[in-house]
Amino acid sequence: MEEKQKVFRIGPIRPPSEANSLLLQITEGCTWNRCKFCQLYKHSSFKAFSVDSIKNDIDMMAEYAEIARKYQRDDGSWNHKAFAEEMESMTYAEQNCFYMIYQWLINGGENVFLQDGNSLALRSQRVVEVLTYLRKRFPLIKRVTTYGRAETLSKISVEEYKELKAAGLDRIHSGFESGSDKVLELISKGVTAEQEITAGKNIKAAGIELSVYFMAGVGGKDLSEENALETARVVREINPDFVRIRTAVIKEGTELWREYQKGAYKLCSDNDKLLEIRKLIEYSQGCTGILVSDHIINLMQEVFGRLDQDREKMLSMIDRYFALPPDEQRLFQLARRSGMVSSLEDMSKIPKNRLLQMEQVCSRITDDSEWDEKINEMMMSYI
Ligand code: SF4
């Protein structure tokens, strides 16, 4: 008889801030699947796993963790060679699981992320059961987080959130993308700004941390200012703990891309998007949360800080860019989108011959729309 593989499920996504987290998949796919910029689950339907099957996965993780801990020496270091030898007898799928647990433990074994795109679509009581079991099997876990769609989150009561918090849910990530009803409708997000506010307030009232995502430029040129100002309004109302910037990229094959091809949607330039971020910072008065720029698709990843205390610093960083002559702004966009620099400071480190080549590319494209399309095309490789 063939031996059963010792594996657990691993889903496709997690926020960058959960790079070192253990991934526990409690659902698969997304309940909505209609956002016009998203292709993530286009070919799969939503699945909620039974509590028993999730507990089996947790048990498997605990079993692997026990094996992996044997390779930690008394001084805290790890015997990678012995670990690699242990993996040799495993199947490819088992190696993936074991490797994830090992990496997690090496990185402290502190945080867990419950996957997938809209995990809180699972009834709260089921999530509570999962959290309780997870915390029992891994008592040293410090933080558990998950993703939730704003519309789903708006239907969960403060009481339910309190139960989730008591069972060990510490933070919820939600892709709000925008606080403008017009933009939300344009991108078919299936949620309103009021629902976002309800969701955000309920989560915070229960003491759970909230991390929301703002997609600068997703409303296109026509709704650029509206996107920034209305998102700032939602941020002011909720005061989320984190506002994470995800600059919009209109990817080939998406609904928004088709609308752009038909001329019904106008791409925002890199400058439009940065201006949106500037406005969001400027108009988020009273918000004590942290603006996080933890993705390479953001033009100025160095703009980061508390929305109250670091407001002026962040605004002046952006203003430094806007004070550059237009050709230098384009040069920076090109360098950034080519992955050559990570901040404005790095521009001085580019070799002269490379700079010359880039200047030639910039001078060849004189039409603004053509330039914006080129930049968008370059950004597609990052998502
Ligand atoms: S809710 Fe999230 S995962 Fe679902 S379609 Fe929209 S962006 Fe994609």
Q: How would you portray this structure in words?
A:
The chain has helices at about 50-70, 80-90, 90-105, 125-135, 150-155, 160-165, 180-185, 195-205, 225-240, 255-260, 270-280, 310-320, 325-335, 350-365, 370-380; strands at about 20-25, 25-30, 45-50, 110-115, 145, 170-175, 210-215, 240-245, 290, 305. The protein is of the alpha/beta class and about 375 residues long. The chain has a single domain, classed as pyruvate-formate lyase- activating enzyme. Strand 7, helix 9 (about 225-240) and strand 8 (about 240-245) form a beta-alpha-beta unit. Helix 1 (about 50-70) runs parallel beside helix 4 (about 125-135), helix 8 (about 195-205) runs parallel beside helix 9 and helix 11 (about 270-280) runs antiparallel to helix 12 (about 310-320). The longest helix is centred in the first third of the chain and has 19 residues, at about 50-70. The protein starts with about 20 loop residues before the first strand and ends with a helix. The model has no long low-confidence stretch (mean pLDDT about 95). Bound molecules: iron/sulfur cluster (SF4).
Keywords for this structure?
alpha/beta, globular, eight-stranded mixed beta sheet, two-stranded antiparallel ribbon, pyruvate-formate lyase- activating enzyme, 383 residues, binds iron/sulfur cluster, 15 helices
Give the CATH topology.
pyruvate-formate lyase- activating enzyme
CATH class: Alpha Beta
The end-to-end distance, rounded to whole angstroms, is 43 Å
How much is the radius of gyration in Å? 23 Å
Which percent band covers the strand fraction?
A: 5-15%
Total of DSSP H or I helical runs spanning 4+ residues: 15
Q: Strand pairing plus helix content: what structural class?
A: alpha/beta
CATH architecture: Alpha-Beta Horseshoe
How many discrete structural domains?
Answer: 1
Name the helicity range.
Answer: 40-55%
Sequence of strands across the biggest β-sheet? 1-4-5-6-7-8-9-10
Largest sheet: 8 strands, mixed
Net shape:
globular
Present as ligands are: iron/sulfur cluster
Pfam family, one: Radical_SAM
Protein name: Radical SAM protein
Organism: Sinanaerobacter chloroacetimidivorans
Domain Radical SAM core: 16-288
